[in-house]
Specification:
Length: 308
C-alpha cells in the first residue's frame, strides 16, 4: 500500500520540469549508469558484449519518448535506422525496442505508421526484431493499431507489450490472439501513473492479472516474453511452464539492465532464455525516474550519490 503511494508520488514529482532540469544537471553523478548503459552506442557496446558473453540475450533501447514535433520524430527515426545499421556491423544479436511516441505516433497515426514502416523495413533487411514498447494510456490504442497495421502489411519481425495493471488488457490480449495467429507479446505490470478508472491500483490485482495474461497467452500458442523481476510470480510461472511442458521457443524471461543481476544469471543457468533490456542515449530522464519509482531503495542510492 505505502509502496503504491511512493510510486505514484515519485512519478508525479518526476514530471515537474524543475526536478527534471536539476536531475539532468547532475547527470551520471546520480547513478544513471546503473540503469543506462551509456549516452552513446559506443559507450553501451562493452555492456552489451559482456551480457552476451555471460549467456544473456540483449534488447537494445535508444532512449527518447513523447517527441512533440515532426522534425524531432524524423531525427529519432534516423537515429533508430542508424543504430540498426551499426548493429549490423557488430556480432551482436539485432533486437531493439522502440517507443512509438519517439517516431511520431503521438503526433499522428499516419506519421507513426510511415516511420514505423521505415524502421521495420530496415530491421527486416538486417534481420532484426523490433518490439513496440507500451507507453502511457493515451497511446495504448494507437500502439495496438500500429502493431496490427504492421502485421497486416506483412511484417513478422515485430512484437508489442501489454500491461497487466490496465483493466482492459486481458480483453486486448484476447483480441490480439484472435486476430493474429501467433503474436509475440511482452507482458509487463506497467510503469506509468494511471488513474483508477483505467488501472488496478492494488498490487495483488495487478499480479493476478499478470498471471492470467501469461497463462492465457501461453495456452493460445503465442510467444510470451515474461518481463518482470517479481521472484514470487516467476516461480509460479516456472511451475506452470513445467506443467505445460512448453518448449523454450514459446517464452523467454526479460529483465531490465542493472536490476536483479543474480536473478538474471540464475534463470539463464536453469536453461531459460533470458533477455536484458538495455537502454542507452542522452534522453535518460523519463526512463530513469520510472526505475526510481519502482523501488524506494533506488531513490536512496541517488540521494547518497548527491550528498556523498
Ligand atoms: C524487459 C522489461 C521491459 C519493460 N517494458 C515496459 C513497457 O514497454 N511498458 C511499461 O509500461 N513497462 C515496461 N516495463 C516496466 C514494468 O512495467 C514494471 O514497471 C517494472 O518491471 C517493475 O515491475 P516488476 O514486474 O518487476 O514487479 P514489482 O512488483 O514492481 O517488483 C518485483 C521485485 O523487483 C524489484 N524491482 C522492480 N523494479 C526494480 C528496479 N527498477 N530496481 C530494483 N529493483 C526493482 C522490486 O523491488 C521487487 O522486489 C518493462 C519491464 C521489463 C523488465
Amino acid at each position: 500500500m505505502w509502496h503504491d503511494l511512493y510510486r505514484k508520488t515519485l512519478l508525479g514529482v518526476a514530471d515537474a520540469p524543475f526536478i527534471e532540469s536539476v536531475a539532468k544537471k547532475q547527470g551520471m553523478k546520480i547513478g544513471v549508469s546503473r540503469f543506462v548503459a551509456g549516452e552513446t552506442l559506443e559507450e553501451a557496446l562493452p555492456a552489451l558484449e559482456k551480457l552476451e558473453q555471460s549467456g544473456l540475450a540483449i534488447n537494445l533501447d535508444l532512449l527518447g519518448e513523447f517527441i512533440s514535433s515532426e522534425g524531432g520524430a524524423e531525427e529519432m527515426t534516423l537515429q533508430i535506422l542508424d543504430t540498426l545499421e551499426r548493429l549490423e556491423k557488430t556480432s551482436l544479436e539485432r533486437y531493439m525496442s522502440v517507443k512509438p511516441t519517439q517516431f511520431g505516433l503521438g503526433l499522428s497515426r499516419d506519421l507513426g505508421l510511415k516511420n514505423a514502416e521505415r524502421i521495420l523495413s530496415k530491421a527486416q533487411a538486417v534481420n532484426a526484431h523490433i518490439c513496440l514498447d507500451m507507453e502511457n494510456y493515451p497511446y495504448l490504442e494507437p500502439t495496438l493499431w500500429l502493431y496490427q497495421s504492421l502485421r497486416e502489411k506483412g511484417f513478422a519481425n515485430v512484437s508489442t507489450v501489454l500491461q497487466s495493471y490496465l483493466h482492459r488488457s486481458m480483453s486486448d490480449l484476447k483480441s490480439l490472439l484472435e486476430l493474429d495467429l501467433k503474436p509475440t507479446l511482452r507482458i509487463v505490470k506497467g510503469a506509468y501513473r494511471e488513474s483508477p478508472e483505467v488501472a488496478f491500483q492494488d498490487k495483488a490485482k495487478v499480479d493476478a492479472s499478470y498471471r492470467e495474461m501469461v497463462y492465457a497467452g501461453l495456452d493460445a500458442g503465442a510467444k510470451i516474453n515474461i518481463a518482470t523481476h517479481d521472484e514470487g510470480l516467476i516461480n509460479e510461472i516456472k511451475a506452470y511452464l513445467r506443467g505445460a511442458n512448453l518448449s523454450k521457443d514459446h517464452y523467454e524471461f526479460q529483465l531490465l539492465y542493472g536490476v536483479k543481476l543474480g536473478l538474471q544469471q540464475s534463470l539463464a543457468q536453469e536453461g531459460h532464455k533470458v533477455r536484458i533490456y538495455v537502454p542507452y542515449g542522452k534522453d535518460w530522464y523519463g526512463y530513469f525516474s520510472r526505475r526510481l519509482a519502482e523501488r524506494p531503495a533506488n531513490l536512496m542510492f541517488v540521494l547518497r550519490g548527491l550528498t556523498g
